[in-house]
Amino acid sequence: MRWLALILAFIATTVCAEVRDPGTHFFQAKFGNLKEDLATARQEGKTGILLMFEMDECPFCHRMKTTVLNQSTVQDYYRKHFLVYPMDVKGDATLTDFQGKETTEKAFSLEQRARATPVFIFYDLDGKAMTRFTGATQNADEFMLLGRYVVEGAYKNAPFNVYRRAAPSGK
């Protein structure tokens, strides 16, 4: 019976999800001021801000964008709960960090210890890191579970791998 539930969940995710460009449907346009973005997130009733630390030549970043972040169900859920921005770990673009300090994407990435890519770091409405996930998720279901882990506040009580094992249907 469990295998039937897994098959149905896979079919529902695969068949019902529309594929859309993550550049326009997952990520928001960056204006380079994370401190101001916190105010926007608060105003819009978001849980926080999600940054995806990435680099162009990263095969795992590419896989996330072409198999997970391009799914409409993922995009809609994450945009409902978070402001979502890409962060180039090698980028020289200037930005203002959560404390109002001028820096570059590369320097900010180093400060956040985002060395491997991709790294997903979820920040609360005060700019404090709630949790991080390094690497690509197995699939869209696992990435959705990661979002729920943060939105539900489960990150306060257990690591994601414990939450994932306890999740219904083993996802």
Can you give a write-up of this model?
This protein is 43% helix and 18% strand. With 171 residues, the chain is of the alpha+beta class. It has a single domain (23-170), classed as Glutaredoxin (3-Layer(aba) Sandwich), CATH 3.40.30.10. It has a 4-stranded mixed sheet with strand order 2-1-5-6. A hairpin with a 5-residue loop joins strand 5 (119-123) and strand 6 (129-134). Helix 5 (72-81) packs parallel to helix 7. The longest helix is centred in the N-terminal third of the chain and has 15 residues, at 2-16.
How much helicity do the residues have? 40-55%
Strand content: 15-25%
Query: Class, according to the CATH hierarchy?
Result: Alpha Beta
Which architecture per CATH? 3-Layer(aba) Sandwich
Major β-sheet, in short? 4 strands, mixed
User: What is the molecular shape?
Assistant: globular
Based on CA atoms alone, the radius of gyration comes out at 16 Å
Number of helices: 8
The number of distinct structural domains comes to: 1
**Order of strands in the sheet with most strands:** 2-1-5-6
